Fold this sequence. Notes:
Strand content: 15-25%
Number of helices: 9
Mean pLDDT: 96
Bound molecules: S-adenosyl-L-homocysteine
Amino acid sequence: MIDNFHHKKKWGQHFLKDNNIVRKIVSESGITSQDKVWEIGPGKGILTQEIMAVTSNLTLFEIDPEVIEIIQGKFGGKLEIHAGDVIKIDWKPLLTEPIKIVANIPYQITSPLLYKICRNSDYIKSVTLMVQKEFADRLKAIPNTKEYAALTLKTQFFYNVKQLFKVPAHLFFPPPRVDSAVIHLTLREDIPNIDNLELFNKLVDVAFSMRRKTLRNNLKPFIGADNLSKLESENLIDLSRRGETLSEEEYLNLYSYLNDILNFKL
Length: 266
Ligand code: SAH
C-alpha cells in the first residue's frame, strides 16, 4: 500500500487489499438493505465500503485514532463510530435491535469477542468473521477430533458454525504469518434452555482441562469424590471416557445431573 499509514502491530492491523475477497465476504454474509450491521476494526474501510453498498445502517468500532480519522474523512458523518476497544465498550445500550456482525478483526481479540457475542446472542443474528484458520477449525469441530475443544461447545451452544472459505496471507497488507478463514455463525433456533450457563461452561472447561485424562480424573477435583461416586452409580455416562468424545447432548445430560439432581453450585 503506497501511503504513509503506519501499521500498528499491537492492534493486529492486517488490511485486506483484494476487492474480490471483500465482495465475497459481504455477499456470503447474507446481509440485506434491511439489516443493521456492526463492523469491528474498519481499517481503511475496504470492507466498510462494500457493506455500505448493501446497507447504510452500519455501526463501527475502532480503537486506532488514526484509522478513525481516515474513516471519517472517507465516509463523513454517515456512520456511527464508537472509538475504543470493542471488548471494553459496553454493548448493552447499543443493542436495541437485532444486528449482524461482519468483520476482519485482529486475531488476538477473537476469543474475547466471541465470548461477548455469545453473551449477547439474543441480539446478534449472524456473524461473518475473518479468523485464524486453526481457530475456524476449532469452532466448527465435531466430537472425537483433535480440533474439538471447550470453545467449540461454548460457541456451538448458541450458533451454527460454517467455514465459508480460506483466505491466503498475500491478500492482506502486511501479510499475517498465519492462514486465515472466514466463518459464518447463525443463531440457533434450538438453543438449549438451561438456567446456569456458567455451570455448563465450567463443566466443559473442566472436562477439557487435561485432554488425555478421563472424565473421572478431570471431574473429581471439581465436583468432589462424593458427587463423583453418585454420578458414577447413575450410569449416565461412562466416566472412563475423555471429554473430547462427548457430544453436546451428553454434556447437557451431565450438566442437568449436576444442576438439577445434585444441586451442585459453583
Ligand atoms: N477490516 C479492515 C482492517 C483489519 S485490521 C480490513 O479488512 O482491511 C484490524 C482493525 O481492527 C484495525 O483497524 C485495528 O486498528 C482495529 N482494532 C484492533 N484492535 C481493536 C479493538 N480492540 N477494538 C476495536 N478495533 C480494534
